Amino acid sequence: RMVGEFVDHVEGAPASRGLRAAASTERFGGKVVLVTGGASGIGRACVRAFAAAGAEVVVVDVDGAGASAVAAEVGGFGYAVDVTDGEAVAALAERVRAEVGVPDVVVANAGVAVSGGFLETSAADWARVVDVNVWGVIHTLRAFAPQLVERGEGGQLVVTASMASYTPSRTLPAYATTKAAVLMLAQCLRAELAGRGIGVSAICPGFVHTNITRAARFAGVDAATQERLREVTTRRYLRRGFPPERVAAAVLDAVERDVAVAPVTAEARLGLLLSRLSPAV
Ligand code: NAD
Fold first, then answer.
1. FRET partner for 239 with CA separation of 20 to 30 A, picked from 14, 24, 115, 122?
2. Ligand 1 atom 10 nearest Cα
3. Boundaries of each Ketoreductase domain copy (predicted)?
């Protein structure tokens, strides 16, 4: 599938639409919510949570098949777009406005991780992670923020930052740098849009068990610690209820209460444990 190519949107079953329209008391009933990186992990959990709360959901992902599948699951709309392609994101915004409506909530969530110390990180890896995690968020906000401003009915912009945004790391310097950048961007935009009734929230999760963390494989950490981390993240962590759904719940809460910066606090205990195990993580 070509980068930036659109997939046909997937219409929801009429029955589910009808049910949604009838339940006007739903938390996000009548709202349009767009999520980038919505085909997997935290983004997919957000899509499901917003849809379950009554929203009309727009799933955007470079993985077009994944976006279509998740959209079909919730009776929403799926679009295949690479967020690093500014023109494609701008075209997406126009198309969504025409086909679904101006989103009330935009979750700029698509991201990639690059692990390895600064001395080992190639220029190509830096370019990739900056392109997706920083430029991808900039393109998304540049495309949608003006629509919300122009419409004049408020709304909420959300950026998936990270605990890495403010926690120095020897193993994820490139990733952490990009996450620090988007945390600051969210706060600047929040200040700028404050008078227009548009809120901006930065969500800062720690370790969540998704494809990104599987891919990172705790590079640069010794084998024994890797094993311990794997055990903590796969067994205890999940058993204690810290899947992507917990982050999605924090996103809905941040949108509803216009939270500026939302660390996903359930992780505090794990963060402490990780820092004891290995100050490098
Ligand atoms: P994930 O890999 O499961 O999901 C990321 C999604 O983004 C994928 O569907 C992927 O196809 C999509 N994507 C990647 N590049 C894209 C591009 N150029 N254009 C459009 N879509 C693209 O990972 P996740 O853990 O769900 O990550 C979601 C966000 O959460 C990321 O911004 C990540 O940095 C952030 N985050 C994750 C964790 C964690 O521990 N998993 C912690 C803090 C923050």
1. 115
2. 37
3. 31-206
Do 250 and 264 contact (CB within 8 A), yes or no? yes
Alpha helical stretches, state H, the chain: 14-22, 41-52, 64-74, 86-99, 123-130, 136-151, 173-193, 211-216, 223-231, 237-239, 244-257, 268-277
ipTM of the complex: 0.99
Is the CB of residue 275 less than 8 Å from the CB of residue 281? Answer: yes
Distance 133 CA to ligand 1 centre (A): 9
Nearest CA to ligand 1 atom 6: 37
Q: Is the C-beta atom of 229 inside 6 A of ligand 1?
A: no
CA of 19 to the centre of ligand 1 (A): 31
Compute the distance between CA of residue 78 and CA of residue 72 in angstroms, rounded to an integer: 8
Q: What is the pLDDT along the chain (281 residues), one digit of tens a residue?
A: 233 334 444 444 333 443 444 455 799 999 999 999 999 999 999 999 999 999 999 999 999 999 999 999 999 999 999 999 999 999 999 999 999 999 999 999 999 999 889 999 999 999 999 999 999 999 999 999 999 999 999 999 999 999 889 888 888 899 999 999 999 999 999 999 999 999 999 999 887 766 666 555 455 566 776 666 666 555 554 444 468 998 999 999 999 999 999 988 544 455 555 555 544 44
Assess whether the C-beta atom of 104 lies below 6 angstroms from ligand 1. no
The CA 61 to ligand 1 mean position distance, Å, reads: 10
39 CB near ligand 1 (under 6 Å): yes
Give SS3 for 46.
helix
User: Is 175 part of the annotated catalytic residue set?
Assistant: yes
Q: Tell me, using a 6 A CB cutoff, whether residue 85 lines ligand 1.
A: no
